[in-house]
Amino acid sequence: MSSDTEADTIIGRFNARIDVRLAEGSAPDDRDLLEGVLVREIGRISGHRVGRDCWVNLEVAGVDAVQPEPDHADSTAYWDGYAPGADLETTLENLGRGFRWTQYKEHGPGLELLGEPRTVLELGCASGATSLAIARTGAEVTGLDSSPAQIARARDWWEEQPNLSFVQADVLDYLARTEDTWEAIVSNWGAGMFCDPVLLLPLIVPRLASGGVYAFSHVEPLAPGHGPQVLYGNGYRGRKVAVVRWLYSPEQWERMLLRSGFAKVEVEVLPGPTPDHVGTVIGRAWAP
Ligand SMILES: C[S@@+](CC[C@H](N)C(=O)[O-])C[C@H]1O[C@@H](n2cnc3c(N)ncnc32)[C@H](O)[C@@H]1O
Q1: For residue 55, which phi and psi values (nearest 5 degrees)?
Q2: Strand (E) positions, 44-134?
Q3: Does the predicted model carry a pTM greater than 0.90?
Q4: 143 C-alpha vs ligand 1 centroid, how far in Å?
Q5: Whose CA is nearest to atom 11 of ligand 1?
Q6: Do residues 100 and 183 both lie within one domain?
Q7: Domain boundary, last residue among 47, 65, 83
Q8: Residues 197, 132 share a domain
Q9: What is the pLDDT of residues 234-281, one digit of tens each?
Q10: Whether 263 contacts 209, CB under 8 Å
């Protein structure tokens, strides 16, 4: 691989042009991984983050992936308004049927995937329902979310659960500065799906106790839509709001997890309950 980088930073704006040649025989999805590595390096040097305040124009081996300069708001307002209709009664009723990692009621594995951790951090907890389900097993649970509205609702709903607390923070900022460790870190369709894994995964490993597990789930990606996907968070008519989600195949996850320092990994697509319905990517990775 060879690369030439010309970077120019103006207040709040960052432009980079990178010409990259992949070695002969590289797998097609190496491009996604490479993009992630470059973005991380550029972010590290410039102090910017892709998808939030940094966009990278990347041209790889003749594939023109140049993106226009961003002209959109970040996703905070989008997440503040997420699941506005959720109510406490229905949430408790759903929890009564048992926690699942999938989008279907009573389908797929539940909390047994975690073993019996005594301390758990949930990334992207929204209303805190998953955190509550885990706290009910007796573990000391921290639910984390960047949305002030989601954290306010979670605190309001679950204030009487003594072993459950909530933190409002961006997951990358929080993991980079905390010195705490947990026996399990989880993302149930949470921040693990909405952050660049090349940035997030290496921050998770040192925050897990020895042998601790990172467990995550997200929607099955529709091939060939692996990698970052930028969605219109505010519909097609309102103020432009970018929501970036990162979906990968089990093979891609396994490679990224191992490269990030996990010792053992298991990722699969669990099919939906009806043949040809949307499945769920469910993964676990263990710290050394
Ligand atoms: C689909 S919801 C998660 C649902 C939740 N885990 C559950 O079990 O019901 C995704 C959540 O991730 C949060 N999120 C997205 N990006 C984040 C980030 N960078 N840091 C922290 N939280 C984030 C959003 O605010 C949102 O509440």
Answers
A1: -120, 140
A2: 57-60, 63-65, 119-123
A3: no
A4: 10
A5: 124
A6: yes
A7: 65
A8: yes
A9: 889 988 888 989 999 999 999 999 999 999 999 999 999 998 999 999
A10: no
